[in-house]
Each structure stands twice: as C-alpha cells, then as structure tokens.
C-alpha cells in the first residue's frame, strides 16, 4: 500500500510522465518492487511518444533513502516494453542539427528518483507523420544511468530493420557506449553493422548545446 501511494506522489512531483499499473508486489527482504502491466503516458507532447506499455518491471529500492523516508530506485529493470513513436513531418529545410535541451534534461534528472534503467527485449515501432511504418527496433539490452550531472547510455545488440524505396528489407545492429553532461557528448565506442558493412568509431563533441 505504501508503494502504491507513492505513484500519485511521483506523478505530481514532476511534469514528464504519468504512471499507472495493475499489479504491484513488494519483497521486504530483498527491498524489491515488482509491477506488471504498466502504462506510462508522456505529458510533454513535443516528444511525439505514445503511451508505453510494459509487461514486467522490477525495481531495486535504495535502503539508505528508505531509512530517511524517501523513495529512490537504485535499479529499474524493464522487460518486454512496447514503444510506438510517430515522427512529425518537418516543414524546415535547414540542415542544422537540432539543439539538445540541456537545461531541461538535467533539471529532470534531479527530479526523477531512478539511478539506473535497464531495458531487456523491448521493441520500438517508428512511424512517419502519416502513421505508416518506417522501422522496427529491438533492444536486447539497453542501460541508462542517471548520475544527476551526467547521463550514461549503453546499448548492447540493438537490432533494427526497415524497407527501402524498392521494398527491400534492410537490417542492422548497433552497439554504443556514450555519455552526456552539460559540456560534452562523449562516444567511447560505437559499432554499427549494416548489411555487409561495419563501422567502429569514438568521438567527443564539446559545446554542443
């Protein structure tokens, strides 16, 4: 009951997502929370994200925060989540890359009480502005670490498929180790396999915002 009461509190403590779930179980011995049939609604419509459904999620609670009456999740494991994303049609002809909203990102990292998120066997369906399928992405494992002042992204065997103009299926795989802070984007390793080719690189981008 205590954990269920925290969900509305979390929903009102930030303006990013609204969370609901049908079933919640907690193990006091392991300090683990398990939830099934979860739905996440994004309140920021500019993200173009439809509601996310999750079959199963397990959260490892931080015992030290619980002692002082705060709820913080040290690790959130998400299995078999389904994402459906519609891309907006761009009316601009500019070739400049969009700026990353650094201040907004790091304002939210301080509000979200989650240190690490791990996605396993999750799928993403990408549609164009007419809701026609463009690509399908399967994340065998993806990890996002929230260090408050830095965000780390690890992608392990992210497979994707799409069709070209001739309806030929194109498949590939991506592996990534990257980090983001207020000053730089650092790509420690990036491996991209596409058809019969492969690319490996590392890079650092300063003053990107």
Strand count, sense and barrel status of the largest sheet are: 10 strands, mixed
Radius of gyration based on Cα positions: 19 Å
Instruction: List SSEs in N-to-C order.
Output: HEEEHEHEEEEEE
**What is the helical fraction, as a range of percent?**
10-25%
The number of distinct helices, counting runs of at least 4 residues, comes to 3
Mean pLDDT: 85
In percent, how much strand structure appears in the residues? over 45%
Described by the principal axes of the CA atoms, the overall outline is: globular
**Low-pLDDT runs:** none
Structural class: mainly beta
Order of strands across the biggest sheet? 1-2-3-4-5-6-7-8-9-10
Overall strand count: 10
How would you explain this protein's 3D organization?
The protein has three helices and ten strands, in the order H-E-E-E-H-E-H-E-E-E-E-E-E. It is mainly β and 209 residues long. The mean pLDDT is 85.
Task: Provide key terms for this protein.
mainly beta; 209 residues; ten-stranded mixed beta sheet; 13% helix
Produce the secondary structure layout.
Layout: H1 2-13, E1 17-27, E2 32-42, E3 52-61, H2 63-67, E4 73-86, H3 102-111, E5 116-127, E6 133-146, E7 150-163, E8 169-181, E9 184-194, E10 197-206
Parallel strand pairs: 4-5
Antiparallel strand pairs: 1-2, 2-3, 3-4, 5-6, 6-7, 7-8, 8-9, 9-10
Compact description:
This protein has 209 residues and is mainly beta. 13% of the residues lie in helices and 57% in strands.
């Amino acid at each position: 009951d205590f954990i269920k009461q925290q969900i509305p509190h979390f929903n009102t403590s930030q303006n990013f997502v609204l969370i609901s779930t049908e079933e919640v179980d907690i193990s006091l011995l392991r300090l683990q929370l398990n939830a099934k049939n979860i739905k996440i609604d994004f309140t920021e419509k500019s993200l173009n994200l439809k509601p996310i459904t999750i079959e199963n999620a397990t959260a490892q609670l931080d015992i030290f925060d619980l002692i002082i009456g705060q709820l913080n999740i040290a690790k959130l494991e998400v299995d078999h989540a389904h994402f459906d994303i519609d891309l907006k049609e761009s009316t601009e002809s500019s070739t400049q890359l969009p700026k990353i909203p650094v201040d907004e990102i790091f304002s939210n990292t301080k509000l979200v009480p989650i240190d690490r998120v791990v996605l396993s066997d999750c799928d993403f369906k990408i549609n164009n502005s007419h809701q026609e399928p463009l690509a399908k992405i399967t994340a065998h494992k993806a990890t996002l670490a929230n260090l408050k002042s830095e965000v780390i992204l690890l992608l392990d065997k992210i497979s994707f498929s799409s069709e070209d103009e001739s309806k030929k299926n194109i498949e590939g795989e991506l592996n990534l180790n990257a980090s983001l802070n207020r000053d730089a984007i650092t790509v420690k390793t990036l491996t991209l396999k596409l058809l019969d080719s492969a690319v490996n690189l590392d890079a650092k981008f300063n003053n990107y915002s």
